[in-house]
Amino acid sequence: MIENQKIRPAQVIGPLGEPLGIADLPPPNTQRWVVRRKAEVVAAVNGGLLSIDEVCERYNLTLEEFASWQRAVDRSGMQGLRVTRIQHYRDLYERQLKY
């Protein structure tokens, strides 16, 4: 029976290097998504603390929205999650494609 249960870590390393547990994640009713909160949720999924489905259900996110957060972190780190930088990075990638 134990082999059928998913084993999950109690904590993962957060985006700033601190231990991050379920209780440390943003509350499910979060409306204002700042860079740190987005990065914490991405770190929780990458570390196996929560699954993508659980995150989407818990925070009422679409799969595409969460995937965009993951891509931003992979490409540019935490700074890629800043809403004010989205246009900058989009322009940069478009220029790279032209030349």
Q: What structural class do the secondary elements suggest?
A: mainly alpha
**What is the average per-residue confidence, as pLDDT, rounded to a whole number?**
87
What strand line-up does the widest sheet have? 1-2
- How many DSSP helices? 4
Quickly give the CATH architecture: Orthogonal Bundle
- Uncertain ranges: none
Just give the CATH class. Answer: Mainly Alpha
Profile the largest sheet.
2 strands, antiparallel
Distance, first to last CA:
57 Å
Strand proportion = 5-15%
TL;DR?
This protein is mainly α.
Which secondary structure elements does this structure contain, and how are they paired or packed?
Layout: E1 11-13, E2 19-21, H1 35-47, H2 52-59, H3 63-76, H4 86-98
Structure write-up:
The chain has 99 residues and is mainly α. The chain has one domain: Winged helix-like DNA-binding domain superfamily/Winged helix DNA-binding domain (Arc Repressor Mutant, subunit A). Helices cover 48% and strands 6% of the residues. The chain contains four helices and two strands. It has a two-stranded antiparallel ribbon. Strand 1 and strand 2 form a beta hairpin.
